[in-house]
Every structure is written in structure tokens, then in C-alpha cells.
Amino acid sequence: MRSRAFTTFLFLINLSAAADGPKDTILARMDKAASVFKNMTARATYVTHTDVINEDSTETGTVVMQKVGAGEVRGLINFLEPDKHAVSIENRRVRIYYPKINTVQEFDLGKHGEQLDQFLMIGFGTSGTALAKDYDVKALGTETVKGFEGIQTIRLQLIPKTGEARQYVTKLELWIPESGDPYPLQEKISEPSRDYRRITYTGIKTNQPLPPDALQLKPAPGFKTEYPGK
Predict the structure, then answer these.
(1) Over the stretch 1-29, which tens digit does the pLDDT of each residue have?
(2) Under CATH, which number does the domain 23-226 receive?
(3) What is the pTM for the complete model shown?
């Protein structure tokens, strides 16, 4: 009986180690990619789920992100459908341009800007070592993402370790290709309200030359600026 129990114990240890294998491999690949990451461009589809009414809304657009320093990024999202608008993130400040009313709304995130930078860099520019420090990371097995039927991905689950981060995000999920660049084809961000946002990236390009105005909002002449909350 003791021999059988000991054998079972060894089996469980080996099973646990095997389960960590894909996770450790991906985190090591992310370490390598983060050391050379400068920027990314892609097309993106954003599906926002509102739990209280069990409804999804879908937006499509383009995204540009540039790493400007340790833990800091600049970003620009141009939403093309269904309603055109653009969102820029710089110096922990968010600016949203609504062309229909030619208005820019500006939000200073203050101390919360650091959290925004961290979430933006998840999967792009964040090292595997940093992820393991800030999140409980688990590999949930291989999956195929809709639209990428020929590509096997490993689904990573990230649970924030700090209570402050869990105020905004309860769980992050990344679908990372089993081979090649370790950038997510899809991300899912779950909130305490049980709302979530799922982002699917296509045509990802990294470390390409960017034009000087690649991350700038381009409001029409005569636009006005509003500061909601002030």
C-alpha cells in the first residue's frame, strides 16, 4: 500500500511538472521577445460583453503601440466600425476624439495610469518574468482561435496577485501561438462586474519603422476639448 501511494505521489508530481512545461516555455519566449520589443501594429476586433443584459457589442479598428521606456507605452486605437472614433494613450493620459462632434475628451489617470500601462503591455512588451511576478500564471491547454484554424495556441490564464489590480481586472487570458512570435492572437479581460472584453488581433507586425505621426490624434480644425470629471 505504501509503495502504491508513493508511486501515485510521484505520478502527481510529474503530472504537475508536465503541466507547467508549456507555461514555462511560453514565459521564456516572452522574456526573449520583450528584450527586443519596440512597437506593434495590427488590426483588431473588440467584443465587449455586458453581463447584466447579456449583450455583446463589436467594434473593429487598427491599433499602434510603442514602448517608450520601462513599463511605459504610447498607444493609438482608431475605431473604424460601427462608429468612428480614436483613442490615444500617452503619459498616462487618455484622449478620445469623436469626429461627429469634433470633440476631444481628455482624462488624466494619475496614479491609475501605471495600471493602464501594465494592462496595455500584457502580451506585447511585457516579459514572462514580469508576468510571473505580478500574476498567478497557468497554462490551460491548447486551443484554436476562431479565424486562425490552422494555428494551435496555448491559452494562458493570468490572475492578478494584488488587490489593487483585482479592483479592475479579475482575470486575463492570452492565446499564444505554440511556435513563432509569442504575441497573443486573442486576449480576454474579465472585470469584477463579470463584464469582459475580448480582443482579436490580425496582421500583427512588430518593430517596424513608424511615421512620426503614427501615434497622434488627428482632430479636424476647430475641435474643442472637454475634461469630463473636472
Answers:
(1) 444 443 333 333 333 333 456 789 999 99
(2) 2.50.20.10
(3) 0.84
